[in-house]
Structure formats: structure tokens, C-alpha cells
């Protein structure tokens, strides 16, 4: 009995121990669970404190203690126990900072916070996570150094920190025994690549590009035998490419471009049998391309352009690299024959071939016609290629650009070339080509640029050239072409530049030339043209360059040429022109060069700007010019005001009595209107000189002081015609000083246009002009300073994001400014160049339209058309600018519509994704209305909310708002001007959208 009793006690004791153990395990598990919960709540508190509406943050709405944290969005727990093993919050619109308490998630193996707006530093405590394998923090606003602890984690497999604002150097002590990927591209890192990094033998992908790293590329990179992807380009590395890179036999992608490496290409790169893409362009590389490199048989892209490479290219290149799609060797000093191009017929996927500006020689064999049918770009200019153009090139049906200029080609253009129906650009100039231009050229309706200068073509221009509907530039200068210029050519309304100089053309200038509404450049010098100069030339008010010299034009110069307000170069010399110089020439404000020499002109030299700066050589060898004492011409007789011809004197005798009678009447009438005319003259003077209305005069020296002598430190930006500096005037007023580069064509005209327009407009949404400073050597506009810079920088900056409400406010501000210009100002004003870089933002993010350098003042009505010589910016300009050559307010509406679509999608109209017939508007049309959310700028979704499925009501509200904006943008950007909305109709639509966003 004693033994049994003792046995029961033992059993009871064992049961008691088991109970105690189970209880302690439960307590421990509960403690661990509470640790994970506390860590997640600390992260929630830190990441939703960025100043936005917390209700728009999915974490704020979903991460509540009402449900277990393992069910929270973005959280994944272990199957065995409620411990967090993965936190994936990519693209969740997170703001604020990364909580250091995440280091308490001791089972965490994956942390993905990429594509958010998190700021601050990376917590050093993350280095304590014992199981962390994936650390993904790319595309945030993180700053400061990379914590050294991150690079000493035994469990890490991937470190992705790209596109932040991280600074300092890469940690020098690296202990990452399992690491496979390190991406720190697009930061502000400095210093050298640490040697320890190349001891991580498990590395497969490294991207250190787009930083400010210095020093040389470590030769120890060759130890990373598992590497398949290496990007070091766009840094400041110096020294040669280490030969040890050739040990990386698994590498597929190698980018070392846009650096200052120098040295030669190591022959060891030929060992990279798996290499598919090699980028070495703009790297200062010298020497020859090693023969061994051609053994890289899997190469798809080989880019070695803009270096100092020499020597030949092996004729078996195409056989060695049959997978090539892009081969770019342009702008080197490579030499030898071109047999290697024939071998490229083995490359069935070849799309781009660039060998321009080298020292290649030899002929182009007909086998070139067997190149890839997908070839789109063939650049071979600036070499020593001789022989004839191979007929086989006509087989390359996908070709868009063909450039064989500046070579030594002979013979005729093969008729097979006219089969290239997709060809848009054909450069054959500066060769020795002969024969005529076949009429089949009219079949190439997509041609935009035809450039055949300095050859030996003869015959006439075929009339079929008028069938080339897309023709913009035609250059047939310095040939032996003859006969008359076909009338069909003068009907090509989209023509921008025409150069037929130094040929043997004859005949008259037709009235049809008035159809060239957008023409900018006409050069017909040194031909055999005759007759009078057509008055239709005066209708080309967009033109800036005219040269009709060395022809046989006679009779008088048409007065209508005085209407060419935009012309800068006008040469009528070496003709047989007679009569007087038209007084209307005094209106030519922008002429920099006027040459009327070697004609038969007579009479008084007019006064005016163009004649105050003219030289005697521009008027020499005429019959009987007088006046202009500064040029030492004889004074004009007192009774001679126009021509001294006897015929006009006889006519004067008959009309003199009538004039005397009229003068008596005019004398009486003038007394009656004297007061009125004096008042009108004053008013007219003020209207014609708006720049005199400014209430503030700022001398050059004050502007120089304000900008610290126009220091680069105060540079806000560069434009096509000058620079803009930030300055502080003597009274402390912050200003933007727009200084024009007077050596740039059109700068003075742009200054006058902007001064004239801004001088007479005042509106909250137009940039205010404070003053001007102008003399013969210096021109500047003093504008109000806009501290938040341009809309363009906000849309495409890694560090700045616009909310939906901010975007609507900006669109509304711009519409109000345009409504004022189009409908509320006494004279209709068309801006002509509306785009994000011309929309500036003040300290309160109020948008203001700027850059009125090509604005047009229209004095008739809202539908009037004014010719323009500047058709705005590609992608934003209305399609009718290229067809009718005129501008209306509906052209601005088109630009505004494109701007709306850009604000919603975050895509520029010139984005590389748009090619052929696909443009931004068509892309949006394809998605509207069924797939709107698929094309919306990801930044909008990130800021508003992340997980759309969790907030269907918010999805619907956002979808309706974005659809409304897109609908307005599509209406404004319709192809036909009369189908577009007017700005006075757009304004209330945007105001309703803004009110709807505020309410919801």
C-alpha cells in the first residue's frame, strides 16, 4: 500500500510540472505576441504622422486592435505561431518616418516599404533583426547615411535602397554572407566602393549607378563569380576598366557608361560568354575594340559611341553576335572596311545601326538589303564610304531614318529606295551623287526631311514632290537642278524650311507661295529666277530668313515686304531691282542683316531701326540712292522725296492743283480735330510702348548687385534664349531676373513680345513683371520671384508630390489666367506655348502662367487667326499650327487639354512610350472610361489611399473625379479647333470639381 501511495504522488507531481510548463509557455507566447503588436502600432503611429489626412491611409483604417494583427493588411504571420514574418506595405501612400521599434519583430524576414513618401533616416536598429532577408526601401524620401549595421546582417539576401536622398559613403565594413542583391541607384552617395563589398561572393546583382561615387573600379569585382547584373555608370569613377571583370562569366548586363573611366577595353571582356547588354558610351575609352569581345555571342545591345576607339571592326561581327538588336559605335575614330555591316544580315532582330562619324571606307554592298526587316535607324554619315547606294536598301521596309550624308558616294539614287514607305528622314547630302530626282519620290508620303545638298543632281524637281504630305524641310542646295520650281511645292502648307540655292532654277515666284504659312527659311540665292518679286512673299509673316540674291529679279521691291515683321535676314542683292527702297522697311524691327547692294535702286534711303545700323556695303552699287549721311551718301534734293524719275515729275504736274485744293480742306479740318488727335497720339504712344508704364526703374548695377554679378549660385534655370537668376533688390524684394542671350536668334523679338504682353496684363494667375533693363548689349526682364519653381519640377521630381486637390487647384488657376487672356482682356492674347515648365508656383502653391516670349496679340475677335513663326513645343502645340500656320485661342485650349491629361497620368506627351500613331491623348482615349485607374499617376493613388479594394466608396469618388478631369482634357484637346471647349466654359467645370473634392 505504501508503494501505491508513493506512485500516485509521483504521478500527481508529474502532472503538476506539465501544467506549470504549459502555463509558462502560454505566458511567453502572449508576451511575444504583445511585443509584435506594440511594434506594429509604433510603426503605424510614426508612418501616419506625415501631415496628411489619416483617414486616407489604409493602415490607419485597417490596423486596429479590434482584429488580430495577423489579419491586418500587409502583415503575414508564421503558420506555426502568431509572429510577424513579413511586412509588405509597398505603394501604401505612407508618410512620416520608419519606426525603430520594427527591430522588435524578431521573426521578420521580409520588410517592403518601397514606393511611399517616408522621410527621415533609416533606423540603425533594423540591423538587429536576426532573420531579415529582404529589405526594400526604394523610391521614398529617406535621407542621411546608410546605417553600418545594415551591411552587417548575416541573414540579408536583398538590400534595395534606390531612388532616395541617401548621402555619405557606402559602409566600409561589410559582412553579408548571404547577400544576392544590392541596389542603391539614384542617391547622393559619395566616396569609393568599399573593398569589403567585393568579398560578398554570393552577390548576383549590384546597382550603384547615378550617384557621386569616385575613385577607381576595384579589381576585386572579378571575385564575384555569381554576378549577373552590374551597373556602375553615371558616377565619377576614373581609371581603366579592370581586366578582372572578365572573370564574371555569368554576367548578362554590364553598364559602365557616362563616367570618366578612360583606358582601353580589356581583352578579358571576351570571356563574358553570357553577356547580353554592354554599355560603355561616353566613358573616355581609347584604343581598339579587342578581337576577343566579338566572342560575346549572346550580345543584344552593344553601345560604345562617343569615345576615342580606333582600328577596324572584324568582318565576322554579325556571325559572332547574331542576336544584336542595337549596335551603336558612332563618334569614334574606327577605321577599315564595312564588310562587318554585311555580316549583320545574320542579325534578324537588328533595329538600330549607328556607325556615323568614324573613318570607315569602302563600298556599301548590295547585300545590305538583306539586313533585318525590323531595322528602323541606319546612321552611317561622316565616313569615307564610296561607290553607289546599294539597290538592296529598298528592301528595308521598316526604315524610319536613313543617313548616308558626308561621304563619297557616287552614281544615282536607286529607284528601289522609293519603296521605303515608312521613311521619315533621308539625309544624302555632301556626296557626289548624280542623275535626276525620280518622280517616285512622291510615293514616300511620310517623308518629313529631305536633305540632298552639295551633290551633282541635275534635271528638275518632280511635280510629285507636292504629294509628300508630311514634308517639313527640303534642302536641294548646291546641285545642278534646273527648269522651274514646281507649283505643287508651293502648296505644301507644312513646309518650314526650303533651300534650293546654288542651282539653275528659272522662272517666276508664283502667287501660290503665299500658302506657306509656317515657312521659316527660304533660300533661293544663286539661281536664274526672274520677273518681279511677288507681293505674295509679304504674306509669309512667320518667315525669319529670306535670301533671293544673285538672281535676275527686276522692277520695284514690293511694299508688302514691309509686313514681314519677324524677318531677321533679308538679302535681295545682285539683282536688277529698280525704284525706291520701300518706306515700309522701316517697320522691320528684328532685321539683323539687310543687303540691297548691286541693284538699280534710287531715291531716298528710309529712316528707321534697320537703316540706323546698316553698313554701306549693304547698299553699295545702286543707281542713285541719297540720304543716310552717316553712310556718306549724297543728300537728297529738297523737292525729291521719292524717285527722281521724269515720268513721276510729269505726273506731279497734273495732280498738284488737286493737292492744293485738298490741303485747304485739310487745314480747316485739322483745326477741328487737333485736340482729339493730340489726345489720341498720347494714348497710342502709351499703347505702343507698354514697357514704359512700369512704376519702378531698376538700373543694371542694381540687378548686378541683386544677383551677385549674375553668379551661377543664383541660377534658377536655363532656357533656349537665356538664363534666369534669383536676386534680392536693394529694398529686399526677391525677384527673378530673366537675362537674354542676345546672340541667340529670336532673343530680341522674344524680349519685345514678353515685355509688350506682360506690360498690359494684370491678373492673379499671370506672372507679374516688375521692370525691364534694356540697352544695346543687355536685355533683362525683372519678374516676381516664384519660390516653388515650375509645375514641371513638381510633376517629375523624386522628392516632391502633388495631391489631387493641389492638381485641381493648379488646373483651376491656369484656366482662370487663360480665361482672362482670351475673354476678359480688351485685346485677345494667345500664349502659344503653354506647358508645365511655363507654369510657376508661388509660396502658397498658386499657379501663374509665365514666358510670354511668343505670345500673340490679336486685335480682331476670338476666332481670328494670326500667323506664327514659332509653333510652340512639340507635344503641346495644336495640330492646326502645322497645317494652317495660324494661331487662335483654341490652340491654347488644346495645350491646356494636354496639360490636364499630363497632370492626371504623370506622363509627358513626349514620353518614349508614345511612338508612331500612339500619343498621350490616344493612350488616354483607349483607357477612358473603362480603365481610368490603370493610367492614373501612381503618386495620386499613393497619396490618396493605397488599397483601393478596402475603400470602395472612396474608389468611386476618386474614379468619378479623375474621369471628369480626363473628360475635360479630351474635350479641350480635340483635333478640330471648333470642337474644343472655350476657357470661359472650362473654369466653372473645374470649380465644381474642386468643390466636390473638398466636400468628399
Give a nutshell description of this structure.
The chain has 1000 residues and is of the alpha/beta class. Among the domains are: 45-199, Leucine-rich repeat, LRR (right-handed beta-alpha superhelix) (Alpha-Beta Horseshoe); 436-489, no CATH class; 694-785, Phosphorylase Kinase, domain 1 (2-Layer Sandwich), CATH 3.30.200; 789-999, Transferase(Phosphotransferase), domain 1.
Give descriptors for this structure.
disordered N terminus, 1000 residues, 16 helices, Phosphorylase Kinase, domain 1, 23% helix, alpha/beta, Leucine-rich repeat, LRR (right-handed beta-alpha superhelix), 23-stranded mixed β-sheet, single chain
Backbone shape: globular
Q: What's the tally of helices?
A: 16
Low-pLDDT stretches: 1-5, 23-31, 49-56, 639-654, 667-695, 859-864
Radius of gyration: 36 Å
Q: Would you identify the CATH architecture of one domain?
A: Orthogonal Bundle
CATH class of one domain: Mainly Alpha
Extended strand count? 52
Find the CATH superfamily of one domain: Transferase(Phosphotransferase) domain 1
Largest sheet: 23 strands, mixed
CATH topology of one domain: Transferase(Phosphotransferase), domain 1
Strand proportion, as a percent range, falls in 15-25%
- Name the helicity range: 10-25%
Task: Give a structural overview.
This protein has 1000 residues and is α/β, with parallel strands linked by helices. It has 16 helices and 52 strands. The strands form eight sheets. The chain has a 23-stranded mixed sheet, with no helix packed on it. Strands 24-26-28-30-32-34-36-38-40-41 form a ten-stranded parallel sheet, with no helix packed on it. A hairpin with a 6-residue loop joins strand 1 and strand 2. The radius of gyration is 36 Å and the shape is globular. 40% of the residues are buried.
Amino acid at each position: 500500500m505504501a508503494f501505491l501511495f508513493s506512485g500516485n504522488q509521483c504521478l500527481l507531481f508529474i502532472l503538476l510540472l506539465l501544467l506549470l510548463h504549459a502555463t509558462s509557455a502560454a505566458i511567453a507566447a502572449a508576451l511575444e505576441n504583445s511585443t509584435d503588436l506594440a511594434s506594429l502600432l509604433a510603426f503605424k503611429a510614426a508612418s501616419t504622422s506625415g501631415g496628411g489626412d489619416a483617414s486616407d491611409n489604409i493602415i490607419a483604417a485597417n490596423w486596429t486592435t479590434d482584429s488580430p494583427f495577423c489579419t491586418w493588411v500587409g502583415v503575414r504571420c508564421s503558420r506555426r505561431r502568431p509572429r510577424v514574418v513579413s511586412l509588405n506595405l509597398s505603394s501604401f501612400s505612407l508618410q512620416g518616418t520608419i519606426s525603430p521599434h520594427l527591430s522588435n519583430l524578431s521573426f521578420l524576414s521580409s520588410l517592403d516599404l518601397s514606393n511611399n513618401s517616408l522621410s527621415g533616416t533609416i533606423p540603425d536598429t533594423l540591423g538587429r533583426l536576426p532573420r531579415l532577408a529582404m529589405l526594400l526601401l526604394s523610391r521614398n524620401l529617406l535621407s542621411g547615411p546608410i546605417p553600418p549595421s545594415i551591411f552587417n546582417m548575416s541573414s540579408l539576401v536583398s538590400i534595395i535602397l534606390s531612388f532616395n536622398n541617401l548621402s555619405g559613403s557606402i559602409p566600409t565594413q561589410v559582412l553579408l554572407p548571404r547577400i544576392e542583391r544590392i541596389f542603391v541607384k539614384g542617391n547622393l552617395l559619395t566616396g569609393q566602393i568599399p573593398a569589403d563589398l567585393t568579398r560578398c561572393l554570393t552577390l548576383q546583382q549590384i546597382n550603384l549607378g547615378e550617384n557621386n561615387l569616385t575613385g577607381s573600379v576595384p579589381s576585386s569585382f572579378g571575385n564575384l563569380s555569381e554576378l549577373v547584373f552590374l551597373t556602375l555608370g553615371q558616377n565619377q569613377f576614373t581609371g581603366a576598366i579592370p581586366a578582372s571583370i572578365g572573370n564574371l562569366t555569368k554576367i548578362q548586363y554590364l553598364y559602365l557608361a557616362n563616367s570618366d573611366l578612360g583606358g582601353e577595353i580589356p581583352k578579358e571582356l571576351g570571356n563574358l560568354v553570357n553577356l547580353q547588354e554592354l554599355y560603355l558610351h561616353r566613358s573616355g575609352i581609347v584604343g581598339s575594340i579587342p578581337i576577343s569581345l566579338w566572342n560575346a555571342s549572346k550580345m543584344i545591345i552593344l553601345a560604345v559611341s562617343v569615345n576615342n576607339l580606333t582600328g577596324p571592326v572584324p568582318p565576322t561581327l554579325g556571325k559572332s553576335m547574331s542576336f544584336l538588336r542595337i549596335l551603336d559605335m558612332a563618334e569614334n575614330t574606327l577605321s577599315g572596311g564595312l564588310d562587318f555591316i554585311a555580316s549583320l544580315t545574320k542579325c534578324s532582330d537588328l533595329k538600330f545601326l549607328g556607325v556615323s562619324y568614324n573613318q570607315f571606307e569602302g563600298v556599301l554592298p548590295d547585300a545590305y538589303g538583306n539586313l533585318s526587316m525590323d531595322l528602323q535607324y541606319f546612321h552611317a554619315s561622316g565616313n569615307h564610304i564610296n561607290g553607289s547606294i546599294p539597290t538592296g536598301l529598298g528592301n528595308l521596309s521598316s526604315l524610319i531614318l536613313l543617313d548616308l550624308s558626308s561621304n563619297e558616294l557616287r552614281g544615282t539614287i536607286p529607284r528601289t529606295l522609293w519603296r521605303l514607305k515608312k521613311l521619315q528622314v533621308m539625309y544624302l547630302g555632301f556626296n557626289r551623287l548624280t542623275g535626276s530626282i525620280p518622280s517616285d519620290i512622291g510615293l514616300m508620303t511620310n517623308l518629313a526631311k529631305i536633305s540632298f545638298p552639295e551633290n551633282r543632281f541635275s534635271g528638275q524637281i518632280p511635280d510629285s514632290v507636292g504629294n509628300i504630305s508630311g514634308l517639313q524641310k527640303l534642302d536641294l542646295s548646291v546641285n545642278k537642278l534646273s527648269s522651274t520650281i514646281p507649283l505643287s511645292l508651293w502648296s505644301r502648307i507644312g513646309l518650314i524650311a526650303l533651300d534650293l540655292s546654288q542651282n539653275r532654277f528659272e522662272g517666276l515666284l508664283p502667287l501660290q507661295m503665299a500658302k506657306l504659312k509656317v515657312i521659316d527659311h527660304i533660300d533661293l540665292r544663286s539661281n536664274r529666277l526672274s520677273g518681279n518679286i511677288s507681293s505674295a512673299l509679304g504674306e509669309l509673316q512667320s518667315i525669319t530668313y529670306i535670301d533671293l540674291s544673285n538672281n535676275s529679279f527686276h522692277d520695284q521691291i514690293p511694299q508688302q515686304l514691309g509686313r514681314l515683321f519677324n524677318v531677321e535676314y533679308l538679302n535681295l542683292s545682285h539683282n536688277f531691282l529698280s525704284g525706291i527702297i520701300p518706306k515700309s522697311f522701316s517697320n522691320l524691327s528684328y532685321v539683323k542683316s539687310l543687303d540691297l547692294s548691286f541693284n538699280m535702286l534710287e531715291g531716298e534711303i528710309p529712316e528707321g531701326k534697320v537703316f540706323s545700323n546698316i553698313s554701306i556695303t549693304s547698299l553699295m552699287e545702286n543707281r542713285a540712292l541719297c540720304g543716310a549721311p552717316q553712310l556718306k551718301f549724297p543728300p537728297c534734293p529738297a523737292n525729291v522725296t521719292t524717285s527722281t524719275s521724269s515720268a513721276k515729275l510729269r505726273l506731279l504736274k497734273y495732280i498738284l492743283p488737286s493737292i492744293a485744293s485738298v490741303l485747304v480742306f485739310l487745314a480747316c479740318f485739322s483745326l477741328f480735330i487737333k485736340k482729339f488727335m493730340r489726345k489720341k497720339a498720347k494714348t497710342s504712344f502709351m499703347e505702343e510702348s507698354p514697357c514704359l508704364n512700369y512704376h519702378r526703374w531698376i538700373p543694371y548695377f542694381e540687378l548686378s548687385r541683386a544677383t551677385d554679378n549674375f553668379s551661377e549660385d543664383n541660377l534658377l534655370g536655363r532656357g533656349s534664349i537665356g538664363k534666369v537668376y534669383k536676386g534680392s533688390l536693394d529694398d529686399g524684394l526677391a525677384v527673378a531676373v530673366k537675362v537674354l542671350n542676345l546672340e541667340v536668334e529670336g532673343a530680341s523679338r522674344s524680349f519685345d513680345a514678353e515685355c509688350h504682353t506682360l506690360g498690359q496684363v494684370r491678373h492673379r494667375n499671370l506672372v507679374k513683371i516688375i521692370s525691364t533693363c534694356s540697352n544695346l548689349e543687355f536685355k533683362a526682364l525683372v519678374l516676381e520671384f516664384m519660390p516653388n519653381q515650375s509645375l514641371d519640377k513638381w510633376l517629375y521630381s523624386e522628392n516632391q508630390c502633388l495631391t489631387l486637390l493641389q492638381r485641381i487647384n493648379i488646373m483651376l488657376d491656369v484656366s482662370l489666367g487663360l480665361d482672362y487672356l482670351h475673354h476678359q482682356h480688351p485685346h485677345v492674347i494667345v500664349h502659344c506655348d503653354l506647358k508645365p515648365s511655363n507654369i510657376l508656383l508661388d509660396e502658397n502653391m498658386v499657379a501663374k502662367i509665365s514666358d510670354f516670349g511668343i505670345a500673340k496679340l490679336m486685335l480682331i475677335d476670338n476666332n481670328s487667326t494670326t500667323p506664327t513663326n514659332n509653333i510652340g513645343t512639340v507635344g503641346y502645340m495644336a495640330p492646326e499650327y502645322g497645317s494652317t500656320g495660324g494661331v487662335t485661342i483654341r490652340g491654347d485650349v488644346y495645350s491646356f487639354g494636354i496639360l490636364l491629361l499630363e497632370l492626371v497620368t504623370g506622363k509627358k506627351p513626349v514620353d518614349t512610350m508614345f511612338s508612331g500613331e500612339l500619343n498621350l491623348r490616344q493612350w488616354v482615349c483607349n483607357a477612358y472610361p473603362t480603365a481610368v485607374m490603370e493610367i492614373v499617376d501612381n503618386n495620386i493613388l499613393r497619396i490618396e489611399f493605397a488599397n483601393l479594394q478596402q475603400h470602395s466608396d472612396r474608389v468611386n469618388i476618386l474614379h468619378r473625379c479623375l474621369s471628369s478631369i480626363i473628360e475635360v482634357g479630351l474635350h479641350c484637346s480635340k483635333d478640330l479647333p471648333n470642337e474644343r471647349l472655350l476657357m470661359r466654359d472650362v473654369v466653372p467645370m473645374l470649380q465644381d470639381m474642386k468643390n466636390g473634392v473638398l466636400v468628399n
